[in-house]
Write a structure and sequence with these properties.
The protein has two domains: 174 residues, Flavodoxin domain (Rossmann fold), CATH 3.40.50; 58 residues, no CATH class. With 236 residues, it is α/β, with parallel strands linked by helices. The longest helix has 21 residues. 40% of the residues are buried.
């Protein structure tokens, strides 16, 4: 039994990485973990030269990575949430999987799980990942989301910047309460004089939010790993 974990997060030891690795560990299987930011996988260029061969002709690391995808019984894919979407690394990888779909659908009947980490749009990203993998014939046995660390916590001027993440996702700008203030109440205090995109004013209480400090989140990752193990064993 082989399980492949793929992270679309470029951040070293990221929350996305931690959740994927926790899922992998809980499978009890032979596993491999790959960070897309450490290899070169570019976007699909729609040349359609893969139609009859199911092999992408672009000369980058996807040729090597696609072999690992083909060999794996299960795949765990995770992404941080950037601008309300999956990271460019994740998106490029998903696009390149298209080469495996033509005629033979080589990813059919593989087991899959998805992870998305973000501030406000992680549920949309995990749903997008689910839909993309289902289009490749994969069976989704588990998906999870978690809150991550807004870049404004560590960038330097985050507390006083007018254009912070919490201001971008504010009710004043979006017309919706996306729950950012509530979700980060132990990490962030938005001060009374804060005015989105006019005057930023907040006190950052903690600079990093780690999923490893959240037992419920880590337990969900372990649960998904066990679901992968059980599903693969049932298919034997």
């Amino acid at each position: 039994m082989k399980v492949l974990g793929i992270s679309g997060s470029p951040t070293r030891n990221s929350n996305t990485d931690a959740l994927i690795e926790a899922i992998l560990a809980a499978t009890g299987a032979e596993t491999d973990f790959i960070k897309l930011s450490e290899i070169n996988v570019g976007p699909c260029i729609a040349c359609m030269k893969c139609v009859y061969t199911n092999e992408c002709v672009l000369n980058d690391h996807f040729r090597w990575l696609s072999g690992k995808v083909t060999e794996a019984d299960a795949i765990v894919i995770g992404s941080p949430t950037y601008y309300g979407a999956a990271s460019a690394f994740t998106k490029a990888f998903i696009e390149r999987l298209y080469s495996k779909r033509h005629v033979k659908l080589l990813t059919a009947r593989k087991i899959a799980a998805t992870v998305a980490v973000g501030v406000a749009a992680e549920k949309m990203v995990v749903q997008w990942l689910e839909n993309a993998l289902r289009a490749g014939g994969m069976e989704i046995v588990g998906s999870m989301t978690a809150k991550g660390t807004p870049c404004c916590f560590v960038c330097g001027p985050g507390g006083s910047c007018n254009y912070t993440v919490w201001n971008a996702y504010s009710k004043e700008l979006t017309g919706m309460d996306l729950g950012v203030e509530k979700a980060y109440k132990d990490y962030l205090e938005i001060l009374p004089d804060n005015k989105p995109y006019a005057h930023g004013s907040a006190r950052i209480l903690k600079n990093y939010r780690s999923v490893k400090d959240e037992p419920v989140v880590m337990a969900e990752a372990q649960r998904i790993g066990k679901l992968i193990r059980d599903r693969i064993e049932n298919l034997k």
